[in-house]
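Q: Give me a backbone?
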Amino acid sequence: MRSLDDIREEYEFLEGDERYRLLIELGRELDPMPAPLKTDATLVRGCSASVWIYPTQEDDRLHFLADSNAAITKGIVSLVLAAVQDQPAQTVADMDITAALEPFDLKNQLSSNRTQGIPNMIALIKETANRIAAD
């Protein structure tokens, strides 16, 4: 997975439809999420498309499997995960993910339908990180 900084560098040089294409490309780069993990328990509420996020842990590092049934939404998920993927749980718990995503100005770049679920994705990730960091 690309780093958030690498993605931001590329994103800043693009406009309009090119940014959509980049998001779609990012979504294609996600690790495959096995169908049995796409359950009601891993479904992110409040998203306009179906989004599933499944946390895994290796040592103290978090790794998320994710998928969506919409290409651009899947790219947004990939962007959110780029901020936290394979980081220590405590680092993710302490991170301001919303601030990390601000350079992408998603609220102004995408429709409100496409961005409405981002706070719920972030909340799920933070909740997982806090729970694991506390153990």
Notes: The two ends are 27 Å apart (CA to CA). Strands lie at 51-58, 61-68. The mean pLDDT is 91.
